[in-house]
């Protein structure tokens, strides 16, 4: 059988949330054997996301965990607790059975994913990597590959990172997640941009990485960001005759 792709998506309430999730679901719906783990950054699961998932037509799991207020500051990494909640769910779900073939991938809700990316990551044996477009102050970042091995990083930002790669640039086999039960994203001591490195060094080495996307020469995922919406003309109290979810 095809290995299941588990996509962990942290998400939070904001005017564009449903639009982002709609676009993401439209992509995921075209991927065979994909399980979407949607983790809300909230004290409870919201009605908006619950209703949305119920109609999304995708195998999914709906989790929530709020980011402590002290971590909601500019310059601090985002969605640490949410990604860990997704990891915990995966480990729990597979604790009694021998790991079914599976691949985990962290899919932020605002990025752009080509369908080819999922074909590439599905053959991940341990940890696979590929280029990411529109990130790090450059058109792309990518792992540098020689003789089929990662030997360094093409990046314009903090080249000292042990794994100079964005969250969207790697996938991990379920087996590796289960055999490293303590591997999580850390708040303590984690500087901006070091989340990926901190996590990856708990489960792999640079030498072990499996380059995808034609030896990391193709961009199949883009770190797009959505513009903040202008709500300057939003009325202070409801003027419309109906209440509409956006
Ligand atoms: N996110 C979240 N809570 C927050 C901010 C972000 O759950 O307070 C989610 C967001 O929905 C996205 C991921 O974390 O899936 C990364 O956030 P963002 O896209 O804002 O980060 P950037 O692209 O700027 O690194
Ligand atoms: Mn983003």
From TrEMBL:
Catalytic residue positions: 196 (proton donor/acceptor)
GO BP terms: carbohydrate metabolic process; chondroitin sulfate proteoglycan biosynthetic process
Keyword annotations from UniProtKB, A to Z: Glycoprotein, Golgi apparatus, Manganese, Membrane, Metal-binding, Signal-anchor, Transferase, Transmembrane, Transmembrane helix
Reaction(s) catalysed by this chain's protein: 3-O-(beta-D-galactosyl-(1->3)-beta-D-galactosyl-(1->4)-beta-D-xylosyl)-L-seryl-[protein] + UDP-alpha-D-glucuronate = 3-O-(beta-D-GlcA-(1->3)-beta-D-Gal-(1->3)-beta-D-Gal-(1->4)-beta-D-Xyl)-L-seryl-[protein] + UDP + H(+)
Membrane topology: Single-pass type II membrane protein
Residues reported to bind Mn(2+): 110
Chain sites annotated for binding UDP-alpha-D-glucuronate: 10-12, 41, 78, 83, 108-110, 223-225
Site (Interaction with galactose moiety of substrate glycoprotein): 141, 233
Residues glycosylated per entry: 215
Domain of life per record: Eukaryota
Protein EC: 2.4.1.135
Keyword Plastid: no
Pathway info: Protein modification; protein glycosylation
Cofactor(s) listed: Mn(2+)
Localization, UniProt: Golgi apparatus membrane
GO cellular component: Golgi membrane
Gene Ontology MF: a single term: metal ion binding
Family: Belongs to the glycosyltransferase 43 family.
Protein name: Galactosylgalactosylxylosylprotein 3-beta-glucuronosyltransferase
Residues of the full protein shown: 84 to 329 of 329
